[in-house]
Amino acid sequence: MSTQALILAAGRGERMRPLTDQHPKPLLPVQGKPLIVWHLESLARAGVTDVVINTAWLEEQFPATLGDGSTFGLCIRYSHEGARYGGALETAGGIATALPLLQDAPFWLVAGDVFMPGFEFPAADAQRFAASSALAHIYLVPNPPHNPRGDFGISDQGLARSQAKEQFTYSTLGLYRPALFKHTPPGQKAALAPLLRQAMQNGEVTAALYSGPWTDVGTPERLAELNTHR
What we know:
The chain has seven helices and 13 strands. The chain is globular, with a radius of gyration of 17 Å. It has a single domain (4-228), classed as Spore Coat Polysaccharide Biosynthesis Protein SpsA, Chain A. A hairpin with a 5-residue loop joins β9 and β10. The protein is an alpha/beta fold. Strands 5-4-1-6-11-8-12 form a seven-stranded mixed β-sheet, with helices on both faces. Strands 2-3 form a two-stranded antiparallel ribbon. A two-stranded antiparallel sheet has the order 7-13.
């Protein structure tokens, strides 16, 4: 199984202002603890031991809040894009830059600003992915109101499709191989979607539909709703 993970936490969170003027979005409290801690606790329960967090906006708050991960039974290391490059490098750029902190092996990837408390990073999925030839395995969710058209589809064979009759929303969570980013220069901005779409065309991305609770905590209203309806 995969024992390492990368949590994406570098974004500015413009739509969450003024809440994110003082704190990074993944450190905002959800039901009594920082949003990112829900991921950390789930990863630890799943047997993951090493976590890398990429940061940029107010990035000094992450080690100050989370430390080295020992509180959670993890080893946390940080890829500080703000200090090294002056700001966030987008998703693929951030991943490529953080790869030297990971082993050359499959890893879990998830955004630090999504709330999916029921997802337990199943070892069986990681083992199946490791035994496959796929470059990525992504989890899709039913389309929320703010993304009614969805992002990707799933074929009958379990392959992700960039265009399909029925589209779902990319949850930001998946299993990835470093090889997907071999042509992405570290330290430069780069988006993830084009890499995924190219790999999908080559039949190198599998997908699964996750129907558990999932929220993109992208607005103060969504955050308030999570903290009101527990």
